[in-house]
Amino acid sequence: MKTCLVVEDSKVMRRIARKMLEELGLSVEEAEDGAVALEKSKAKLTDMVLLDWNMPVMNGLEYLIALRKLPGGDAPLVVLCTTETDMAQIIKAMESGANEYIMKPYDRDILESKLVQIGLIEPKDL
Fold first, then answer.
1. Cα angle at 74 between 13 and 9, to 5 degrees?
2. Per-residue b/e over 95-115, b at no fewer than 16 CB within 10 Å?
3. Is the CB of residue 18 less than 8 Å from the CB of residue 25?
4. SS3 35
5. What is the CA radius of gyration of the chain?
6. Sheet holding 77-82, edge to edge
7. CA-CA distance, 76 to 83, in Å (whole number)?
8. What is the pLDDT of residues 55-73, one digit of tens each?
9. pLDDT at 82
10. Chain centroid, CA 34 distance in Å
11. 3 state DSSP class of 49
12. CB-side exposure of 96: number of CA atoms within 13 Å?
């Protein structure tokens, strides 16, 4: 079973993301900010990280840069979740190692399509 670390400061958003990801067949862990996520990533890397951009303590971009420096840290697929509409910021995130991004708010269909796009899950037969 593929694993995902949901990094999100909103408890409600973590629960919603967890439910969607579990419905898509992933095992989910949670972290409330980038610093907690980094400690979890140091202990065990997941197949994917669903990463909020704006968080206290350590934001998503700071976590992403630190993750990519860890041994094996280039392996997890990272989908950055943001309300950020500045393309320069999104390009910076992609250049820092994000595999893809989604705009908040997102739904299960959007999340599923991104996971298919990055190759984490197989598309459903229609």
1. 20
2. ebbbbbbbeeebeeeebbebb
3. no
4. helix
5. 13
6. 27-31, 3-7, 48-52, 77-82, 100-103
7. 22
8. 999 999 999 999 999 999 9
9. 85
10. 11
11. strand
12. 19
Nearest to 42 by CA among 31, 57, 27, 55: 31
Percent of the chain whose pLDDT exceeds 90: 84
Task: Compute the C-alpha angle 4/7/9, nearest 5°.
Answer: 150
Q: What is the pTM of this model?
A: 0.94
Look up residue 31 and give its amino acid.
Answer: A
The dihedral region occupied by 62, where left means phi > 0, alpha psi between -120 and 50, and beta the remainder, is alpha
Q: For residue 120, what pLDDT band results from cuts at 50, 70 and 90?
A: very high
Looking at residue 62, its amino acid is: E
Could you tell me the CA-to-CA distances from 76 to 1, 50, 70 in Å, in that order?
14, 10, 11
pLDDT digits (tens, 9 = 90+) for 82-102: 887 778 888 988 999 999 999
75 is written with which tokens? 């392996």
Per-chain mean pLDDT for the chain? 93
Instruction: Give the chain's domains with CATH numbers.
Output: 3-117 (3.40.50.2300)
